[in-house]
């Protein structure tokens, strides 16, 4: 019985890692579609999001079955409840990657981001991709040094996000209102992605240490 | 034992209602601060969000204790897991009300929204407030007719949200880029608020019927 239970817990952990890998793939491809105005790739990301949603539901049902049938306590219980919450954050990160891809599709064949902000958005995307990869690694290794890396990356994302608004408010901003909207939304999607990443990282940290780390940022 | 357990479940339900009431108060006041450029009221909403966060944590801990100590099954288990998820959505709605208040504070003494969009934003806010009130009512009464009302209100919100982008893209849009950013973000906050409201409503519906209603919208 105990062995079956451990196998089931392990399965939940594996599914979380699978979802996290799919989210990484989604944000990588979404960014390629976004920077390269690649409508087919955008379409692929949009379609693939259904798989992430499916896996999230599957994981959640599995977790609830474990709660019902095994009545886990202490750290096992924390692990199950934590998984339910992490899956929700990961699913939302998948949605945000889809939103980025949808912007690419909407503006095709034009690019969403004006040349003056390309470098900023490249860095935003690179940081989101880094966070997403590190979450997978963190879920696999439980190496808590990664949590700090993820938080630092997110702090930099917040700076970049603010700098985007600075650029838009500057006197030399000469883009159309539509572009201003797209830039605002895209920046917000990348920024939210990082926040959800931090939220997953903090949950892993909580599972490992049993200590709830206070939030060091507001959003 | 059974009696204690029922009292604890009831307590979780009550706390959910309390959070929902605070969220309603937050979105009502945030909107007043937002439309009236009332910086003190904005400040009040921003400060009050900590109470919502505290109550969410408290509810979550209580729910996890019930899972650990009572090992609920079937509909009781569903109710506990559902509460954890609803509290997360309500907490997020509180954050969004805070974001609206933060925009009001940022632009004070100016108003955030230009006169041409006042009516649209009034309607957005009215619908968000309606949704928030109806969620409290739904949590109290489990009257599923309210779910349909909430979904209809959200469909209208999505229309209005799209119309904001239409207004910004129109040739006669002559606002500053900063205003364009504020309008974009504010519209997004009101729109996300409605989505989270639908998400809570669908969870209540699931708890009552045991049937998971497929999502009828994408965001």
Automatic annotation (TrEMBL), chains A, B:
A Pfam family that the UniProt record links to this protein: PhoU
Gene3D superfamilies: Phosphate transport system protein phou homolog 2, domain 2
Compartments where located: Cytoplasm
GO biological process: intracellular phosphate ion homeostasis; negative regulation of phosphate metabolic process; phosphate ion transport
Signal peptide from the UniProt entry: none
Keyword terms of this UniProt record: Cytoplasm, Phosphate transport, Transport
Domain PhoU: 17-103, 123-204
GO CC, any one term: cytoplasm
InterPro entries: PhoU, PhoU-like_sf, PhoU_dom
Primary subcellular site in the record, as a coarse category: cytoplasm
Function: Plays a role in the regulation of phosphate uptake.
Family: Belongs to the PhoU family.
Subunit relationships: Homodimer.
Record-linked PANTHER family: PHOSPHATE-SPECIFIC TRANSPORT SYSTEM ACCESSORY PROTEIN PHOU
Name the record gives this protein: Phosphate-specific transport system accessory protein PhoU
Natural source organism: Psychromicrobium silvestre
């Amino acid at each position: 019985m105990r062995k079956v239970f451990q196998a089931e817990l392990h399965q939940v952990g594996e599914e979380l890692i699978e979802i996290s890998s799919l989210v990484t793939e989604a944000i990588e491809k979404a960014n390629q579609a976004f920077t390269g105005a690649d409508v087919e790739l955008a379409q692929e990301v949009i379609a693939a999001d259904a798989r992430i949603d499916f896996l999230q539901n599957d994981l959640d049902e599995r977790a609830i079955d474990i709660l019902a049938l095994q009545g886990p306590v202490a750290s096992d219980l924390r692990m199950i409840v934590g998984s339910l919450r992490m899956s929700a954050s990961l699913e939302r990160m998948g949605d945000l990657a889809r939103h980025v891809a949808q912007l690419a599709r909407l503006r095709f064949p034009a690019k969403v981001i004006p040349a003056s902000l390309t470098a900023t958005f490249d860095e935003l995307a690179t940081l989101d991709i880094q966070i997403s990869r590190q979450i997978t690694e963190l879920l696999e290794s439980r190496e808590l040094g990664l949590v700090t890396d993820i938080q630092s990356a997110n702090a930099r994302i917040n700076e970049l996000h603010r700098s985007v608004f600075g650029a838009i408010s500057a006197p030399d901003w000469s883009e159309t209102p539509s572009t201003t909207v797209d830039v605002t939304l895209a920046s917000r999607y990348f920024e939210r992605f990082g926040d959800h990443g931090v939220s997953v990282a903090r949950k892993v940290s909580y599972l490992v240490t049993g200590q709830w780390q206070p939030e060091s940022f507001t959003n």
